Each structure stands twice: as C-alpha cells, then as structure tokens.
Amino acid sequence: MLTKRIIPCLDVRDGMVVKGIQFKNHRVIGNPIDLASQYSSDNADELVFYDITASADNTTVKYKWINDIAAAINIPFCVAGGINNIHIAENILASGADKISINTPAIENANLITELAKRFGSQCVVVGIDSFFNGSNYQVYAKTGKEESAYQTNLTTHAWVKEAQERGAGEIVLNCMNQDGVKKGYDIDQLSSIREICNVPLIASGGAGCMDDFLQVFNKSNVDGALAASVFHNKEFTVMELKKYLIKSIRVRI
Amino acid sequence: MIGIVDTGGANLQSIKYSLSRIGEEYKLSTQWSDFDDCEKLLLPGVGAAKNVMENLKERDLLQPLLAESTKSIIGICVGMQILFNYSEEEDTECLGLIPGEVKKFKDSSLTVPHMGWNQVSMNKEFDDYSGYYYFANSYYVESTEDITIGHSAYGNKFSAFVRYKNYYGIQFHPEKSSVLGMEFLKNLLRL
Asked: Which of A89, A102, B12, B165 has its CA 20 to 30 A from that of A210?
C-alpha cells in the first residue's frame, strides 16, 4: 500500500528561501537548491515551494529557481503562489515542477481548476485551502498571504472541497488556520470531517509542533500526507528522525 | 543514445535531468528520423492517454512506432499505458503493442489518483530494484504472469513494471524516485 507522505514546505521570495513571523519580517534562510537537496537526501517524500515573490512579471527568469531545483533533486515537488492562469502554470511545469497548487485564484475563478486539470491532468493540480473554524462552520478564507488582504469567503470548506474535486483537483492541501503557527498539533477534528468527503489525496497543513502531532494526524484523520515548515526549518527534528518515530505504527518510506 | 519521443507533455525537464545525472546522452524530438542513431526510445509520462495518442498521430509518429521492432521502447506512466490495446481513460484506443487493457482504480475506499511512494516487488531478475517508487496514476494494468516483472498493490495487485518483446512499461516515475529510481533507470537503459 501507499506510504504516508512527509512534506516540508519552503517559502521562496526573489529566488531565496525565507522565513517570516506572521507574514512579516522575512529573513533569508538559504537558497532553495541547497535546502531542497538537503531535505531530499533526508528522505522527504515531496517538497512544496510557496512563491511569495511580489513582482507580477511572468518571465522565464522568474522561474529559473524552479529549473535549478528540478536539476538538483529527484523527488517530486509542487510550486504554489501566484498561479492564476494556464500560461503561468505551463511555465512552472515546463521548468520542471511536478505539480502546481492554486488557492485564491481558484476561489475567484473555479473554472481554472477545470482548465488546468484538462490541460495537464488531475495529478498535476493541487488545490490549497485556508480554512477557519468560526465557532459553528469551517469557512474558506482567501488572500491569506498578507494579514491585511485576508478575507472570509462565502464558501464552506466542505462545499469547496467537493467542488474542487468535481472540477478535477488531484489533491487537496487543507491548511487549518486556527492551528497554523500555534504548534499545538494538526486540526484532527476538521481533517477527519473533510476526509469523509474527500476522495482525492488529502494533505494536512498547519499546527505541527512535535513528532507525536504527525502520528496523531495519520492515525486519527487518515490523511495521505502531512505538510510542515517550521519544525523542519528550525531543525527541531529531521524528516528521517520523524520517519523512524512513525514507522512503528505508520507506513512510511525509509 | 537515448531518444525521448516528444509527445507534447508539459514537464520533460525531470526525465532529461535524470538521464544527464546517470550519464546517458539523449535527444528530444518530434521527428522519427532523428532517432536513427538511438538504440532505445523513451515515451515520457505526462498527460492523458487520449491527448498523447492524438499528439503521436499529429506528429506522424504513430506508424513508425508501430513498425519499430528492433529498438527498445520504454514507456513511463501514461507512456506505458498507451503501449497497451485500450485505456478506460476517456475511452482511448492505444498502440496495441502489448496485449491488455488499462483500467481505472474504482475501489471506493481508495483515494484516486494513487499518488505517492508505494512498494514495488520485482521478480528475481530485478530483485535488487525492489523498493519504494513514486507513483501518480489513476489508471493501472493488472498484474499478469506473462508480462509483469514488478508489481505493487493498491486495493489489488497491479503492474508496476512490464516487459513484452522489445517493449518495457514503467508505471511509476523512476525520474522522481530518488536514488533507487536512478539506479533502476540506469540498469534498464544498459540492458
């Protein structure tokens, strides 16, 4: 059977990997090629690069770092951020990315999911969802990259997950905002609830603080993979250490 | 020299980089005549079966592919699937170079696409290459004694690596399967 995937996530700005505290104070922590190679040889199953570069110009220079990563590693990787049309998606895939992940542009134009799936195949198309529990409902948020631009949409997370799948999304990354950055564990309740209606791979995001958090999310929410950033970047534990911890009860690739 | 048949997929970088990494020379083309000096041809694995078949037709690659009897033809992922007679993906007639059909994963308890790293068990001849490989497929070929060299399981057993005459089919992505994938590819291209 398939193994559960451990997926480090890296924020890239102007071709460098950065780390910010609550969307601010970005500090360069390395170049994407070195970090990608490091995570790849540490047995990461996949990588996600979230491009937070502000400039809107869509030139091949902008995607050079993607090409460099494709040349440097031989595990799959996904690129997210700013993909709002077929042309940009094509450039990113042609530069060597295996998947593209779309979030706000899909909310603003759901047909984009359909078009991308038709053109490149569902296995390339990931829909990222920022979801917030407002006390009674799980609600989808858009433009969460900056605090001042984030807004609540009128979509419930359940309805949006269903629509994204119907339109051809091949994978859902569910970022549970209540847990994000808090490091108190993944949002087991929400992920379990979404799992029931999600027939494509479901990736948990937001909240990882310790190795047990990964064990819990795989055991209780039956997600296909778990994404995390700070625990890996801060070297609290390596992917390999995590996998050795998990392998007692979870199928992982070592 | 390895010939990569350009079937129109968006991501050909990974396979090119993989070949460079293992020291294989290659050329990428849509022209069959360019492959005269190639002993092996790769059908890369991106896109949908119907789309790939249509591209082969448009590029006049269909007839030479069907007629080729000496070069090894190696299909990866959808490139493997089109070697068979038929695919359930958009009801597509395929090349028919290997007998058999390509089916959709239908078990409702499975998430589809089958995406991620799965264990492949190879037969004796390739046993050194048993291990985890990266897959991204919604369709599969059943595992049969005649052609299956390596199998994996998702609900049921399915073919991960097949051989028939001068045709090889790889359902996983060796170019995305880390060190083992590179070793597997290196070995296959030197057979």
From this structure: A102
Contacts of A96 in chain B (CB under 8 A): 11, 13-14, 17
Total number of domains in chain A: 1
Nearest CA-CA distance, residue B111 and chain A, Å: 5
**Nearest beta carbon to residue B115 from set A74, A90, A170:** A170
Q: How far apart are CA A193 and CA B95, in angstroms?
A: 43
**A2·B118 Cβ contact <8 A:** yes
The answer to ipTM > 0.85 is: yes
* Domain boundaries, position A169: 5-246
C-alpha distances (whole Å) from A61 to each of A87, A89, A92, A158 are: 15, 15, 11, 38
B138, B102 in Cβ contact below 8 A? no
Q: What is the pLDDT of residues A154-199, one digit of tens each?
A: 999 999 999 999 999 999 999 999 887 788 999 999 999 999 999 9
Please check whether residue A219 is in contact with residue A188, taking contact to mean a CB–CB distance below 8 angstroms: no
Instruction: Give the pLDDT of residue B48.
Output: 84
Q: Find how far residue B187's CA is from the centre of its chain.
A: 15
* Interchain contact, A200 vs B111, CB within 8 Å: yes
In a domain, A251, yes or no: no
> Domains of chain B (ranges plus CATH)?
2-190 (3.40.50.880)
Among A21-35, A68-82, A155-169, whose mean pLDDT is lowest?
A21-35
Query: What is the model's pLDDT at position A194?
Result: 98
- CB of A18 within 8 A of CB of A49? no
Q: Decide if A97 and B11 are in contact by the 8 Å CB cutoff.
A: yes
Active site residue A11: yes
Residue A93 in domain: yes
Which of B117, B137, B139 minimizes the C-alpha distance to A2?
A: B117
Q: Please, are residues B34 and B70 in contact by the beta-carbon 8 Å criterion?
A: no
